[in-house]
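job 3f2a | input accepted
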Amino acid sequence: MPGILDKSRTIAPPGFNRWLVPPAALCIHLCIGMAYGFSVFWLPLTRAVGIDHSVPSPLEATLLARLVSTAWDWDKPLLGWLYTLFFVFLGSSAALFGTWLERVGPRKAAVVSACCWCGGLLLSAVAVRSHQLWLLWLGAGVIGGIGLGLGYISPVSTLMKWFPDRRGLATGLAIMGFGGGAMIGSPLADRLMKHFQSATSVGVAETFVVLAAVYFAFMMLGAFAYRVPAEGWKPAGWAGPAAGLASAPSRSLTAAEACRTGQFWLLWGVLLCNVSAGIGVIGMASPMLQEMFGGRLLGTEIPFEQLDAGQLARIAAIAAGFTGLLSLFNIVGRLFWSSLSDRIGRRATYAIFLVVGAGLFALVPAAGRAGSVAAVGGLLCLALSMYGGGFAAIPAYLADLFGTGSVGAIHGRLLTAWSVAGVVGPVLVNYVNVAQIQAGVPRARAYDQTMFMLAGVLLVGAVCNWLVRPLGTAGGTVTGGPVADAAPGVPLPHLPDRLAGAAVDGRVLGFWLLVGVPLAWGFWMTLRQAWALLG
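job 3f2a | predicted structure (535 res):
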């Protein structure tokens, strides 16, 4: 196995088609992206003991008792910590193993990612069966979170080496799958849970086992399909980086050097704010929609608290579709906004994300009070497209400032902001929501205060982005003027290996179909649910 996984075994031979690498990255990211869809499990897991009703824990029960008790159901705030653990360990493992990944190559990192993510799901199935919350946190949260981190960063630097002429497009291709994972996984998980549901099970444990098996097969395929370009390779027709870019460093900085600059920490703040807002909504998207609109999702005026079991099941399916719809905009935003950043610049693109995004979040409470499901859905979908675009464009932003030599390691360290955001976002949503309900605020209005707080967080990020300036020649000093995000290379009259030309290669077509068919199914399911939601 060490020989098979060695980086030298992944160097592409002459004539290798670079369009084979993006679907390999998608095989990884479409699987680990299901982390975004985990809110589809929250409400079923709050009935894992009672099956058709929730068995709440006594108010005096300690945290330790709730972690190990088999007599009480888990509540949403406790389950929300699983979502926090995902991204705490994603960012931590990306920072810790980023330099290691650059040394050993993407294949070995992807194999370890598959073992951790799928192994964590299997351990989570055991946790649900034995009703041990601490084991669920350990399985999916800790072990799975490490798998998320390694799988997330494994294709980024590789694809930017394959696409130096289109950095934004490259990072969009690398990361869009992470946003699309829930678009496939959420409706699939909802169907699996319904299939496995019985008088003694809500179907979550069995669903975890099936997902682990399917994801492992896809992730291993992607890992062994990875290739890295040979030293000195460049795309045909590309003349190299354009001279005179104000933002282009004279040399690539190492991860340690980049972390000693103010620009790195300003971008860290930008990512923290953007992710905190987006992740807070994604983590509770399914229950938020159900509680905010209740029976209106079924065409009645019955509040959420008065719905019967059959009605709850129906709105849960609609909310799963809403989670998939958010994922659809997440994935489209990653490709659209990152590609647009190649034209208008990274700094201008992030200004749109943070300022316009703040306005979108601030409008959600008014749309909710008006009772418009379509308006709330539209606002959050557009905001989530910008959230996804922020993830996709950040590696190119880093490459513009620090060079591509160690961008994988630098990106890994920057993702510690995701770890912090994994605490800030869900805590703002979960605990402020619970506090509002305990204070007597109706469930339909209990998310309003949170939306205003998240809008404020985005405005703080906008200030950080405005302060970013290009590196000086000394490698870290700030020079005047905004970042000049000109095109990363000499314009190409054409791409000789564009997809139209690559289609003659049967491997390219087959590989893209392999990832495209599940994406198309997820897209279709999302549109069906969106029609029910908006109708």
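job 3f2a | The radius of gyration is 23 Å.
job 3f2a | closed
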